[in-house]
């Protein structure tokens, strides 16, 4: 069985090269970045697979932001 792994915003910021919270949320709203998932209460996270796919697509396109 595969375990779902989620990344929290600080992890996502690190993966995106230290982008700000507002930049990441702007990308989410514009559809340039994966939608987060509500995990519990006010906690949200991004499936690690979605972030890996996004990162791979950015690398193949030559950059983001």
Structure description:
This protein is α+β, with helices and mostly antiparallel strands and 65 residues long. It has one domain. It has 3 helices and 3 strands, in the order βααββα. It has a 3-stranded antiparallel beta sheet.
What is the topology?
Layout: E1 6-7, H1 9-15, H2 21-30, E2 37-40, E3 43-47, H3 48-61
Antiparallel strand pairs: 1-3, 2-3
Class derived from helix and strand content: alpha+beta
Ends apart, CA distance between termini:
36 Å
List low-pLDDT spans: none
Radius of gyration: 12 Å
Please describe the structure with a list of short key phrases separated by commas or semicolons:
alpha+beta, single chain, three-stranded antiparallel β-sheet, 65 residues
Characterize this entry briefly.
The protein has one domain (6-61). It is 48% helix and 17% strand. The protein has helices at 9-15, 21-30, 48-61, and strands at residues 6-7, 37-40, 43-47.
